[in-house]
Amino acid sequence: MHPSKLLCGHAAPFGSYLPTAPSPASVHRRFSSAIVRATDEQTSVVEPAAAEPSSSSLFDGFPFSKGQEVINARAAMAGFVAAVISEVVTQKSVWTQIAGRYSNGDLITRANGTASLLFGAIVVLLSYATLAPYFLKGETNTARSFGPFTPTRERDVGRVAMMGFALLLAVETARGGTPVF
């Protein structure tokens, strides 16, 4: 069947301008000539030995590791507890405390300046804390444990705290900006 008749037996709107697949013979001819050319022009190439890095860079600390995940998990747990306490004390939602409350583009409730400043400072400090394994060469967070606080348990509870904080923000948004607690 002609490609233009594939649309329910009717002629396609583009007529015979539909692309068609190349014939197997032409594909074989193209690839065999490329293979022959590649095998005819082979020369020996000497690869230079890989140079050893002279020093580590700041970006070596960026790939996520277990130590950085434990740091971020601890930050998430502290952030979730701080958000709940802040809501209970001020009776304002997290969004209202940080960014204010708006309706149709008009400011209804101003943001708490101290909360916004503190939120920004904590974000910056925790960003630097993630890089701590780079700056403290011999120190690892995964080797430390104290009683029930093992790095694996902290990581798991931190993941729950991250989801809890995201859920807190989602519920506040769905309820129109009213605090959950």
Return the string of H and E elements: HHHEEHHH
Helix content estimate: 40-55%
- Global structural class: mainly alpha
Largest sheet, order of strands side by side?
A: 1-2
Give average pLDDT, whole number: 73
Would you spell out the secondary-structure blueprint of this structure?
Blueprint: H1 24-40, H2 66-90, H3 94-99, E1 101-103, E2 106-109, H4 113-130, H5 132-135, H6 151-174
Antiparallel strand pairs: 1-2
Helix pairs in contact: 2-6
Can you describe what's shown?
Keywords: Chloroplast, Membrane, Plastid, Transmembrane, Transmembrane helix. The chain crosses the membrane at residues 117-136, 157-174. Pfam families: Chloroa_b-bind. The protein is mainly alpha-helical. The chain has a domain at 65-174. Helices cover 52% and strands 4% of the residues. The protein contains 6 helices and 2 strands, in the order αααββααα. The chain has helices spanning 24-40, 66-90, 94-99, 113-130, 132-135, 151-174; strands at residues 101-103, 106-109. Strands 1-2 form a two-stranded antiparallel sheet. The radius of gyration is 30 Å and the shape is extended. The protein starts with 23 loop residues before the first helix and ends in a 7-residue tail after the last helix. The mean pLDDT is 73.
Structural key phrases:
181 residues; mainly alpha; two-stranded antiparallel ribbon; 6 helices; 52% helix; transmembrane; membrane; plastid
Describe, in short, the structure shown.
This protein has 181 residues and is mostly helical.
